[in-house]
Design brief:
Length: 422
């Protein structure tokens, strides 16, 4: 009989969680076993050893990954993360999530993900550039506008994408901006891209509040993670009249039941590299996911809401700004409590949607103003939310199961139409 510790560890395995989420939705679709196996397995997983010359002249070898889960609906799409805890399982799970994320918002991409085991906080800019260029060069046979299009993820940014553009372009002997998205505006980036994921969270929260007849003006919001997604979500929700009552990041947390001054908090966090010590709020002494609020936005890393703490959640709505913040066992508890969870593959898909817009603009060489990008994003996100909500109500399932059902159906339909090459 397995012990409690092993059960908890299994609950926190990202690949196992992705498979459980897939299986629950797939079981309701009565898929042929062969088709289920096709869409369940990643099509390609690549491991590369990356020798990099460090600033002190020594050579260090890093391990990098790139997993392509599916390309049946279009090029593989997914970010690259730099983190000491990157694993092949994690990258594989995130690649699968990208397949479903792109399908649920109905954009013509498949799913991919990449990562390098490193600690970028202990590396110079020059070391990071050399690591990035080596990674891009070693995977240049995979990357390409019509095959695999990376983007920023944890600890990577616009500058990293610009280095990949340059490296790939040098190998191809032509400038190719469409090889990655999330680039600086000067290197083929799209207006509105930086705010896109947070804006998508806002749009989903709006739709959820409308569905549940909850006024967004005056709603209390707690935000876990105050990076790009969390900070933009907080800022935009404040403009809609919501009250941000608690915020946390790796440095600590602050709260104020009357509502935090978000513009002042944004400036403090930028100046002090974190929210800890913000004079406009009190130090947060309880886990933020358990904070008493109407709307919770987990916008940090995976596995933040588990069966250990799900019973202590107070929020009526959870809007998943992060990938995989809620484990399958926690989902069951939240559903029993009546918590309305907007799943990650829908809620945080604003970023990949505008990445698609960026890729389109790169390929046609014509760029849209920010208002047009935001308008197209709203149209796409609202349609996706309503598709998922309709599926949930039709089948009597929660929004996560419904989102996976919508996504799987779209991928399967393309496979059936294209057939299997043999």
């Amino acid at each position: 009989m397995p012990d409690e510790g092993s059960n908890i560890q299994k609950d926190l395995n990202p690949l196992a969680n992705a498979e459980r989420q897939f299986e629950e939705a797939a079981a309701r679709l009565n898929l042929p076993q062969g088709i289920k196996e096709v869409i369940k397995r990643p099509r390609r997983a690549t491991i590369v050893s990356l020798p990099v010359q460090m600033d002190d002249g020594s050579l260090r070898v890093f391990t990098g990954y790139r997993v392509q889960h599916s390309i049946v609906r279009g090029p593989a799409k997914g970010g690259i993360r730099y983190h000491p805890d990157v694993t092949l399982d994690e990258v594989g799970a995130l690649a699968a999530w990208m397949t479903w994320k792109c399908a649920v918002v109905n954009i013509p991409f498949g799913g991919g993900k990449g990562g390098v085991i490193c600690d970028p906080t202990k590396m110079s800019k020059g070391e990071l550039e050399r690591l990035t260029r080596r990674y891009a060069a070693d995977l240049s046979d995979l990357f390409g506008p019509e095959s695999d299009v990376p983007a920023p993820d944890v600890n990577t940014n616009e500058q990293v994408m610009a280095w990949i553009v340059d490296t790939y372009s040098m190998h191809e002997r032509r400038t190719e901006y469409a090889v990655v998205t999330g680039k600086p505006l000067e290197v083929g980036g799209s207006a509105g891209r930086r705010e896109a994921t947070g804006r998508g969270v806002l749009l989903c929260v709006r739709e959820a509040c409308q569905h549940l007849a909850i006024p967004i003006a005056g709603a209390t919001v707690a935000v876990q993670g105050f990076g790009n997604v969390g900070s933009v979500s907080a800022d935009l929700l404040t403009r809609d009249g919501a009250k941000i009552v608690a915020v946390s990041d790796v440095t600590g947390g602050v709260h104020d039941r009357a509502g935090l001054d978000v513009p002042a908090l944004l400036k403090w966090a930028a100046d002090h590299r974190g929210v800890a010590g913000f004079p406009g709020g009190k130090p947060l002494t309880t886990p933020i996911v358990e904070y008493d609020c109407g709307i919770l936005i987990p916008a940090a890393l995976e596995n933040q809401i588990t069966r250990e703490n799900a019973g202590r959640i107070h929020a009526r709505i959870i809007a998943e700004g992060a990938n995989g913040p809620t484990t399958p066992d926690a989902d069951k508890i939240l559903e029993e409590k009546g918590v309305f969870v907007i799943p990650d593959i829908l809620c945080n898909s604003g970023g990949v949607t505008v990445s698609y817009f960026e890729w389109v603009q790169n390929r046609m060489g014509f760029y849209w103003p920010e208002a047009e990008v935001n308008g197209r994003l709203e149209q796409t996100m609202v349609a996706a939310f309503r598709d998922v909500l309709a599926k949930a109500m039709e089948h009597g399932v929660n929004m996560r199961v419904a989102a996976f059902m919508v996504a799987i159906e779209r991928v399967v339909k393309v496979i059936m139409l294209r057939g299997v090459y043999a």
